[in-house]
Amino acid sequence: MGVLLRGGAIVLRDTLIEADVLIEDGKIRKVGKSIDSGYSKTVDLRGKLIMPGAVDPHLHGREPGLEYKDDFLHTSKAALLGGVTTVLEMPNTIPPVDSPSKLLDKKSILSSKSYVDFGLYAVLYDYADDPGLLDSRIVELVESGALAFKAFMAQTTGNLPPPSFMTIHRALELSKKLGYTVVFHAEDRSCVEFFTFRARKEGKGGLRGYSEARPPLCEELSIGYIVSIAEATNGRAYIAHLSTASALGVISKHKKASAGIYVEVTPTYLFFDYDKHESLGALVKVNPPIRDYKNRVRLWAALARGLIDVVASDHAPHAEHEKKGDFWEAAAGVASVQHLLPLMLTSALDGFIPLGKVVELCSENPAKIFGLYPTKGSLLPGADADIVAVDPAAEFVVEKESLAYKNKLSPYTGWKLRGRIDKVFLRGELVVDGGNIVVERPTGKALR
Q1: Residue pair 424/117 in contact by the 8 Å Cβ criterion
Q2: Which of 18, 125, 191, 374 could make an S-S bridge to 218, C-beta 3.0–4.6 Å?
Q3: What angle do CA 394, 88, 371 make, to 5 degrees?
Q4: What distance, in Å, lies between the first and last C-alpha atoms of the chain?
């Protein structure tokens, strides 16, 4: 039996078209006007916006080893309720994903718990002491299913050491040959250590003080280093969670010379700044830090001009006690996957960006960059029927009780958003209806 989605307004990059979508065997079979329903079940979506499910390539699900912060059951439910149907899970869990056996163990753990389709990262350690191991380890991890590698250039959850020049250079060389992407947390470690020591010695604190402890210079130094190597190797380098608009100049220069350089920004940097949100304190403490209002405006302008490729959540939940007490000791990270798409939809419906830009930034581009397109991130015939129906007229307030996270912490609590996620289909199955999950068990699958 097929399913016919009747009469919705399909969001394309440049326009909206009213059309039907025919789903058969979990795939999109046809998109067009007045499709004959035949024996198909029909779902009336008139008045709704139809979009491909969001693809979030930056998610910290915290499992295994850090389940007190969150677990994948809760994280994937939150993703699904927010219209995210595919996630890529970061490797800095306990143990970190640094070998094929650990990757397969993590895949096994998450497969029984995920409400969305998911792919796995592996961590890019430093192989300077054993360069002969690097090539074989990367090949083994890719063959075992790693979709991407994460390089942490500064301190982060898990305290993973940054990779050396040799490791980065070779990993980027291999990325073009093997088709994976290296994702960088781009802050220069020694720069962060110096400015953090100085800021704390001078008694600074709060969001403004934290930005001074990890200033834009640290990000600019790291980004310049990374994109220079990416251009030299013609490799695939992805700058995660850009916070510093001033770095876009050097990125743009290298992007013109190399097609494999990509930039991500997260809602935290688009919606918060220390000029207006200092009172939120550690609730919006992230690495890199949020910047001032002028920087936030520049990020929005860059996004509108096409200088930013992806908006991802960088979902990084913590337990409530980890966000209280001394600001310097508080954990860095924001739980945000449930409202990634609603925040961007609200921005579009309020006229800040076109609706098609939301599809481009949250679905199409991440799917293309990580080798999932057009199976994911599109409404093309043959694609997985991962489809989100949005009610553009509906407004809702983010309430603590509505959060699917294990720890009900969100800086968006109390915000009024537009464009309610009404229905979500995952590979053709209706999994969210009326804003509620309607399947009894997780149906997500691991991706290769």
Answers
A1: no
A2: 191
A3: 105
A4: 28
Written as one string, the DSSP assignment of 262-319 is: EEEE-HHHHH--HHHHGGGGGGG--SSPP--HHHHHHHHHHHHHT---EE---B----
Cα–Cα dist 164/235, whole Å: 16
Burial-class residue 277 by CB neighbours within 10 Å (0-12, 13-18, 19+): middle
Angle between helices 189-201 and 206-213 (to 10 degrees): 140
Active-site residue, 386 included: no
**pLDDT (tens digit per residue) in 118-137:** 999 999 988 888 888 999 99
For residues 159 and 249, give the distance between their C-alpha atoms in angstroms, rounded to a whole number. 30
Nearest to 260 by CA among 226, 232, 228, 237: 237
Which of 117, 314, 384, 391 is the catalytic position?
314
Q: 17 - beta bridge partners?
A: 10
> C-alpha 134: how far from its chain's center?
27
Q: CA-based Rg of the chain, rounded to a whole angstrom? A: 21
Q: Residue 364 carries which DSSP code?
A: I
DSSP string of 304-346, one letter each residue: HHT---EE---B----GGGGSS-TTTSPP-B--GGGHHHHHHH
All domains of the chain in start order, with CATH: 3-49+384-394+415-437 (2.30.40.10), 53-369 (3.20.20.140)
Using DSSP, state whether 71 is helix, strand or coil.
coil
Span 367-390, pLDDT tens digits: 999 999 999 999 999 999 999 999
Closest by CA to 121, choosing from 74, 158, 79, 80, is 158
Pull the structure tokens for residue 202: 């001078």
CB 25 within 8 A of CB 278: no
**Coil, helix or strand at residue 5:** strand
Chain center to CA of 184: 13
